[in-house]
């Protein structure tokens, strides 16, 4: 095998197949370092390292530098996370139990050099901690034009961050940022939303405490064995179905915006496997029976906690019968018909950063 053959067989850790390109939101750019999560004092140690990068998350939204929040609706703009200096935050964490910290992992930045990533979750920050006197010195350009605001205002760094940084949703941020930051934001946002929604042990009802550097919770009840709880991930299937003429099946669901057309998707039922769910959803929504199914890829979809598993389906027939409840319309399109529909805006495509859009582009053979 020649070297070029070898390189063509090297898959990214994200790709089980090469059908879809890198999908935003998937985290593969940092080493999770799961082994470090149970280390005593890990967060505090890392916050004191100058090389550690600290991002902020608040009820699932992430902080970006001042002024960037207005960019979400523009095409071809680049956005980045606002990173804060960790050393000023360990005090706030110690004094405010409502503030959570997640260790997101490590990025290799050259021989012997690593950046550790931490997300500070201020969703439940209630109380304030005065900043140490020198806290404003070098306190990150993320604060933008107001970076020189004197600490004497009495605002804590986190309060200032909350006011002066822009906060954007993952949906708004992901299409515009690097793969690394999209992944970091996805992990942070997912954990943040989980900790907001679950504060008690689902088994015994006792309060839970954050564990494993934010990736788990521990039930506080000794009689319940202080069990460790993990975030639930809900699998969903999404299927791009083609017929024998390689036309794509697109559907419009009642819950969607007008003219929005996409492929079939739905949650996996208890006791069901992925391929059954894909075939069932198709049959329910459009009456199309799928034969062969090919795995295309997957994408975390943390709204709030799904994992989208994508397939390409081969239809056994073409007779469409929409259910009229969930799905209002479904239609077979050729590539030419689809491009024409997009141009005339009789059809709108799924948003950037969605796996549905990549699936349609895979069928189309080019970007939308
Ligand atoms: Zn319990």
Automatic annotation (TrEMBL):
Catalytically driven reaction(s): a 5'-end NAD(+)-phospho-ribonucleoside in mRNA + H2O = a 5'-end phospho-adenosine-phospho-ribonucleoside in mRNA + beta-nicotinamide D-ribonucleotide + 2 H(+)
The protein's required cofactors: Mg(2+); Zn(2+)
Keyword annotations: Hydrolase, Magnesium, Metal-binding, NAD
GO BP annotations, alphabetical order: NAD+ catabolic process; NADP+ catabolic process
Enzyme Commission number: 3.6.1.22
InterPro entries for this protein: NAD-cap_RNA_hydrolase_NudC, NudC-like_C, NUDIX_hydrolase-like_dom_sf, NUDIX_hydrolase_CS, NUDIX_hydrolase_dom, Znr_NADH_PPase
CDD domains: NUDIX_NADH_pyrophosphatase_Nudt13
Pfam families: NUDIX, Zn_ribbon_NUD
Family designation: Belongs to the Nudix hydrolase family. NudC subfamily.
NCBIfam families: PRK00241.1
Protein name, as recorded: NAD(+) diphosphatase
Organism (species): Bifidobacterium psychraerophilum
């Amino acid at each position: 095998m020649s070297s070029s053959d070898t390189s063509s067989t090297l898959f990214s850790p994200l790709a089980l197949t090469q059908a879809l390109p890198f999908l935003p939101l998937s985290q593969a750019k940092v080493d999770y370092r799961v082994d470090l999560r149970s280390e005593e004092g890990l967060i505090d140690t890392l916050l004191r390292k100058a090389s550690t990068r600290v991002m902020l998350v608040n009820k699932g939204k992430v902080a970006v530098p001042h002024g960037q929040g207005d960019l979400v609706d523009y095409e071809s703009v680049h956005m980045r996370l606002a990173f804060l200096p960790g050393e000023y935050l360990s005090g706030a964490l110690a004094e405010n139990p409502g503030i959570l910290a997640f260790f997101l992992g490590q990025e290799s930045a050259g021989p012997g050099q690593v950046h550790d990533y931490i997300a500070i979750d201020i969703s439940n920050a209630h109380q304030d901690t005065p900043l140490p006197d020198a806290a404003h010195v070098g306190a990150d350009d993320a604060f933008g034009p107001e970076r020189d605001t004197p600490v004497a205002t009495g605002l804590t760094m986190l309060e200032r961050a909350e006011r002066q940084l822009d906060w954007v949703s993952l949906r708004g941020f992901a299409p515009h940022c690097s793969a690394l930051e999209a992944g970091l934001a996805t992990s942070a946002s997912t954990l943040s939303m989980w900790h907001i929604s679950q504060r008690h042990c689902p088994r015994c009802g006792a309060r839970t405490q954050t564990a494993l550097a934010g990736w788990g919770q521990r039930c506080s009840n000794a009689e319940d064995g202080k069990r460790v709880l993990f975030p639930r991930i809900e699998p969903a299937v999404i299927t791009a179905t083609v017929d024998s003429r390689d036309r794509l099946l697109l559907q419009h669901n009642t819950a969607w915006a007008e003219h929005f057309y996409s492929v079939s998707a739905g949650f996996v039922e208890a006791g069901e496997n992925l391929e059954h769910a894909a075939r069932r959803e198709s049959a329910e929504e459009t009456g199309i029976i799928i034969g062969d199914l090919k795995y295309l890829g997957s994408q975390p979809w943390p709204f709030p906690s799904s994992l989208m598993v994508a397939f390409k389906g081969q239809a056994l027939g073409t007779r469409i019968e929409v259910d009229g409840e969930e799905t209002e319309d479904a239609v077979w399109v050729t590539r030419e018909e689809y491009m024409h529909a997009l141009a005339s805006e009789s059809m709108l495509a799924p948003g950037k950063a969605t796996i549905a859009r990549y699936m349609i582009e895979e069928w189309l053979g080019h970007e939308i």
